[in-house]
Prior knowledge:
alpha+beta, Rieske Iron-sulfur Protein, 4-stranded antiparallel sheet
Amino acid sequence: MSVTLQALPAGQRLTTVAIRRRARRGRRYGSDRVWAIAFALPYVVIFFAFVLYPVVYGLWMGSDPALYRQLFDDPRYLTAVINTLLYVGIGVNLKMALAFLLLGVGATVWVRHVMPKVEIAEDRHPLRSSDEARKQFAETFKEGAEASAFVKRPLIRRTLIAATVPVALAPIVLLRDLGPLPYDSLDHTVWRKGMRLIVYGTNRPITPAEFNTPGSMITVAPDGFQSDFDAMAKAAVIIIKMAPGQLQPPTVMNWTVNDIVAYSKICTHVGCPAALYEQTTHHILCPCHQSTFDATAGAKVLFGPATRPLPQLPITTDAQGFLVAQSDFHEAVGPSFWERS
């Protein structure tokens, strides 16, 4: 087999080499742009969806100056600010400082009085690496940089670094969870005068004669709101039938019917359903954190983290003999927070 070599003029060879170099450079830069877009596009999408949109939405929701006037005029606003400063600015920092102080005291006592006393001598050596090790490290670093092409491809390098910037802005998404303000919507439920108590599940009203066994407990809902989960989150109620003479103050006797008493089902700790009832002790139990309430004494707290009794719903009967509400709760239902005692 023979091979024929044809010599090209020098100018033509240089032109061919230059064209090939430009073609390789074009392919390389085109690949760089593709990878740069691949790095940046997900973060741009996430930035717009979870950072920019919540910020713009929050600013739009708070664009009405009347909202701020209502906020500052609310008598609970100053109390909330003071409680926040006391809790976050003083309480948390003071407890943290005390915890670190006690840890330091405990570590000092442990080292000085518990651990054996042993003298250890260690020769000091120069910390500087040898010239040979430093030179070898520099060569290894340069080889790694060359192999990774991190220095030669600035577009990929810059977009890769820039793609990590939105991570620092991610907490801004929390702004979306701040509003709108509830104002006094947490202080009221849908219960109104004359609204019937509907047995939850069967969706039928109930009379005192039908609920006449002492120790019985059922869940009831306001008529028309059995399927409204937002309303039921605050308006769910349990009614309990007591034996004559078992109900005691601070239970409001005028709010009961034939020894039937109605309490909010929403635990005053964190809002779990307080739906367990012990017939022998007359205790209402919340299964989440074991808050216990005395059903015979105004649902006062007997045990657990709850700080307030379960609110009592005033009940009576209508002309047809069905149990109805006299009014809404006379105090806020649900979890306690700084503005509630």
